[in-house]
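ERR on first pass: missing label on line 2. Operator R.T. fixed the label and resubmitted. Corrected input:
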Amino acid sequence: MQLGMVGLGRMGGNLVRRLMRAGHECVVFDADAGVVDKLAGEGAVPAADLDALVARLQAPRAVWVMLPHGRITEETIDALAQRLSPGDVVIDGGNTHFHDDVRRAAALREQGLEYLDIGTSGGVWGLERGYCLMIGGEAAVVQRLAPIFETLAPGVGDIERTPARTGSVETRSAERGWLHCGPAGAGHFVKMIHNGIEYGMMQAMAEGFDIMRSASKPQVPAERRYELPLADIAELWRRGSVVSSWLLDLAADALAENESLSNFSGVVQDSGEGRWTVETAIEEAVPAEVLTAALYTRFRSRQDHTYAEKMLSALRFKFGGHVEIKK
Amino acid sequence: MQLGMVGLGRMGGNLVRRLMRAGHECVVFDADAGVVDKLAGEGAVPAADLDALVARLQAPRAVWVMLPHGRITEETIDALAQRLSPGDVVIDGGNTHFHDDVRRAAALREQGLEYLDIGTSGGVWGLERGYCLMIGGEAAVVQRLAPIFETLAPGVGDIERTPARTGSVETRSAERGWLHCGPAGAGHFVKMIHNGIEYGMMQAMAEGFDIMRSASKPQVPAERRYELPLADIAELWRRGSVVSSWLLDLAADALAENESLSNFSGVVQDSGEGRWTVETAIEEAVPAEVLTAALYTRFRSRQDHTYAEKMLSALRFKFGGHVEIKK
Amino acid sequence: MQLGMVGLGRMGGNLVRRLMRAGHECVVFDADAGVVDKLAGEGAVPAADLDALVARLQAPRAVWVMLPHGRITEETIDALAQRLSPGDVVIDGGNTHFHDDVRRAAALREQGLEYLDIGTSGGVWGLERGYCLMIGGEAAVVQRLAPIFETLAPGVGDIERTPARTGSVETRSAERGWLHCGPAGAGHFVKMIHNGIEYGMMQAMAEGFDIMRSASKPQVPAERRYELPLADIAELWRRGSVVSSWLLDLAADALAENESLSNFSGVVQDSGEGRWTVETAIEEAVPAEVLTAALYTRFRSRQDHTYAEKMLSALRFKFGGHVEIKK
Amino acid sequence: MQLGMVGLGRMGGNLVRRLMRAGHECVVFDADAGVVDKLAGEGAVPAADLDALVARLQAPRAVWVMLPHGRITEETIDALAQRLSPGDVVIDGGNTHFHDDVRRAAALREQGLEYLDIGTSGGVWGLERGYCLMIGGEAAVVQRLAPIFETLAPGVGDIERTPARTGSVETRSAERGWLHCGPAGAGHFVKMIHNGIEYGMMQAMAEGFDIMRSASKPQVPAERRYELPLADIAELWRRGSVVSSWLLDLAADALAENESLSNFSGVVQDSGEGRWTVETAIEEAVPAEVLTAALYTRFRSRQDHTYAEKMLSALRFKFGGHVEIKK
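pass 2 clean. output:
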């Protein structure tokens, strides 16, 4: 099948590579001509600009935009919409807010264009492992592009089947690693929640290892002060424990490299989905204690001291004469 | 090798079965004679009481106690201590607080007895998958009982090796599913943290699915109200996503059976380790926001309404004349 | 001074009464003719509709809208805008989101109209105690209406002066209970934060009393199980303690009436500002752990059981065979 | 009345001064002879050591120990117990854990000695405002020392009476600022909760001001970016708002001195009661989200970066190739 790809960064480039390996034809464009050339050298059809990309694709076209969320994605989709024809499909595979998908899908539909929002999980591992695809949009459009999704997704693989599942795996694409989640926005909604859960699971693991490492602190009474072998513990839990997970596999790897993690400072960014998850929980009046706490630890990690902490110090001084003891 | 087992409930019985399959001899006792008979029928050596159990084992003996934590475990270990001889080993494989291990190990050492505390993860799946064993105590004693641990543990299995790991898997038992974590209490400490992390990961997942399910609530504006296919989403994430985990596998199974989860009321118990994890974090002055929040949601789940909530209602009425709108 | 008031509910009606007591002329309108009549009986100038209200006011007019936030406020302001003349002022004294103020102020300015957003705290007590006013908008407009604000605000009263304050209280209106906080939206922003803090303080107090009341639970060891005199404790803390506060005064009153609070079920509403506070914190990347936790306890109070809790039960059953123990 | 005071720091010294002003006789001892001399110069009876102090008091004696909680208090009470006679009373006015009170009261009772645990709130302001006293122990002993408590407590003062209260203020000491809360430990229990609530209220206020201050951050869209007058806002809320409180009075003072709070670094200690409050909540299975979050922000404030944060950075690098962007 033929697909246009706009944005050839770490994600976009590897999506193209995985598609080409399976024989799909990819027409590619990026603002950086160097990466276009590189992929052309690997078999992709290069396009010098959006006009060239659209011209090179046969109608009904499908163009996957894989750019950082925000203005650049918005502008690119607008530019594409001016060049595409009724029946063509625009795919936003980035981390767009589902509110924007809803708005955009309605606007494009007025021009006769189709829109799919696809949450794409897989990171630097996706080229080999496959990408987990969460798709929002019209069912017929999703169906039309199924060959693309089958290639990008991990497939059934050697993962043991869920016991309560019945019927052929051919009938439900979820077992092959891609899913039509619902109408416009549903794909990015599910991806957003995925990332929210990811934040929470990461933080749960991180706190647990922090408590284990802090078991060696001098303030702990000597008879129950432990120097725990953290790398081995992470490794151990990979087998037969309730917390077995891909994140644990990665923790085991990071700890095997450097148990002190001293190669990291602990300044932790957040990519947006964690915030949107919390905002959505609030709109729905769902208490999301853990996902929110996980987000806040990241905010806190990026400041030396909060103004809130200074106010605590000020109040303690005012009511009790407590003077700060510096670290 | 020979092992005594006291307590033949779901965990103790299956530990014995897994050992016997590998040719170990198990001498077994339980207050319920029926379960002793049952295991005897499967090849175990039955003992009518602790005296008989001790008499049937050859010195140096090893007796594994697998009982609910608390008084019953404490009394059983005391009773065993009176019957055992210097050089014998008592193993507490239950969910004992590591403070109790520290105290007990010191007391038993005065009698010349050895003590191992073993955190045992695996639940109803351990018989087939193997048990992840976290062990505290003297290194020499752990070494002596290594054949038992090799049998109970899952082994290397088909789990991909952690990339940063080097050397033979024979040299580090963690890769085979059991680990000597440190001196007395270290085994149960690590198991405690394991369960704390488990609480946090479960809650992260639970909140995420709650937000997805609540996306269909009537208060959400119609254009972004979704009926998301939760069972399929859980299934999807099992492949290629960052949240892949055994807990997700189980969620996928539960949702495939009944997506509404209406077979559960949501009254959630906690087994102690979550509380101890938080108490330990506080002793160490480690902020454990997520693990604590996960614990508190369980406390809350067991009450119709808290007194705190009534006080909020009372205050709102007092300052604003707000009258409660009943659910 | 002359003021139009639209919306004569609990808040609007008492604002009018407090103004009239000081000799201001109030022209009043409400969709409910009964409340218009009632206030007319107390000295207000009744208006049958917005046209009449506008006609009765002398330019430059000032019309205070005191309605529930959302559509009704929006529509009323639109309707007023069509009737007012350049130089007139519209005041939104309700609990509007500051984003809406920013948008509205800009739209009205295009018509030559002025806009003030006023966060109004005081509840059922404001008529006697005065209203704490947080005002956003143009400085000149605020200045023009100062006589209104001086009347509505509590004034200096018998509250001890803040030691670090210098100069005459005439120079800073904050000491008299009203404040120009900044440009459009700033008034409702400050009121929003006020309510967010209120949520957090209420929850802190509520949790503390819950822990005290739960000290009598049977699971607490007998030697440290207490039946604490909660009403007297609240009363006690009103004098000389760090937690002295108006909320504590109200708690003392509620507990003196009924220490068990059994007249309340504990279903707790939230009025919007708590949510907006958290959303604003997220936009600013400020960790707001306590304000958010306080909001979530209200969400939780309104459900029998969350879907998240059911998922915890389901997972516990799946990995450990744990069956729910009903309450 | 006569009272012995051991420990003449900020709290102990001022308790003595307030008692002497009302004509009570105070026999005083401190390890620092200088402070003994100083108080002797103000009218106290100096004692060179505990023997002298006990000898100078008439039976039945009452000795108030006002020392930092922990070993020094424990040893001092042991030393006093060896010197006192049946019927004498030992008072621990410090911040002792109520578990220790329960144990101590039982031990002293075996020697015929009485024990009161008194939580004392008032800080640097108590000398003038009076101390809020929360008392645990035998009712008869509390009654015997009532004249001391009446003097130390703030008294009815000019605080408005709680509307639901009836009867003479003479009948309930809570309205005069001291209270017999229950048997041994109850006084320190109530003080512990008081401080727990204090942490929560402080954090609520601190977060609110942080969000207001952060409204001027460059990442906030310009049209709703505010430079809010924080000192004036705190002042404003002191009149007629729901968050009026002594903590707000102090915040207003601190902000009036230096709105940026740049004289504080934000390293915030915790004095123990916050931790004990959370541990008690956990023992009682009471969800204490806000009080716990308030405690954790203090833990976090004392670290440059947590190990947990480094693990988040490590995991993000492993699954997504994300490299930390330094602050």
